[in-house]
Design goal:
Elements (H helix, E strand, L loop, with lengths): L6 H6 L4 H29 L7 H9 L4 H15 L4 H7 L3 H10 L2 H11 L6 H10 L5 H13 L6 H6 L4 E4 L4 E5 L6 E2 L4 E7 L2 E6 L4 E6 L6 E2 L4 E7 L1 H14 L5 H8 L7 H15 L5
Antiparallel strand pairs: 1-8, 2-4, 2-7, 3-6, 4-5, 6-8
Length: 291
Amino acid sequence: MNSIPHATDSASAPAKPGMAKKWLVGILVLTFAFVLMPFMLWYMTTFTRPLNDADLVSYFADTLHPRRAQHALSQIADRIMSPNPGIRASAKTWYPEVIKFSEQGSDELRVTAAWVMGQDNQSPEFHAALLKQLADANPMVQRNAALSLVRFADPAGHALIAGMLAPYTVTAQRTGVLSIRLKPGDVINPGTLLAHITIGNDKTEVRSDVPGTIRQWIPSDNTQITTGQPLLLVDPSPEMVWESLRALYLIGQKEDLPAVNPYVRGAEGMPPQIQQQAQLTAREISARPVH
């Protein structure tokens, strides 16, 4: 006589072949996704992945994804710095693209192009393009251009480089009521949202142009401000100080010593290597003859 199966019998019965196959496929898809997604994230964000000429054409033409053009620009720099003469020579084909982005690209692309052009200090085309970038609307483009010009033994950006040691003043781009978001001591980067300026229902963002640490707000929160009014002071980031001191080691003059000396004594929040570089820079400048 056939017995009626208990619930426990069906629960302990082996899975049907079709069901087991579905579970296996699901697990494999899930496992593949966990492997593939990080790889795709790396693929789309890293600038170290080598690009061939066809990739460069595609990346430079991709106006919807600026980071791809930034990746392509970084690859041109890699070619310029290659120990292989053939690879270095191949970079020159792309110099017009680099110069185009130095003039017409987004802020990030113009900053990157300024750095790339500094890698070939024998190129008169790059030299001329960097001199133009000293008048760029973006302070980080100006700074990168000034630093790259030092590699050409050109001190045209000297004032910009020396200014990197001092607090940066953020000014209001419009009139309205200021709503402060961040406080003194907060570390910021280019693009960090600092505040809003509001007129009625119209709200405008105030974002940082440079990296650093907020020293102080000049007007108070919820006060009326006007176009061009200073809003806050930003102390320079260690990276900016480091690059400035290294450049001033080569092009600094005695009038720069008052700006360098605070770092010689050791500035609060700066790593030890900043003080060491400041000492080297101050010593080199002091030994330089007065022009």
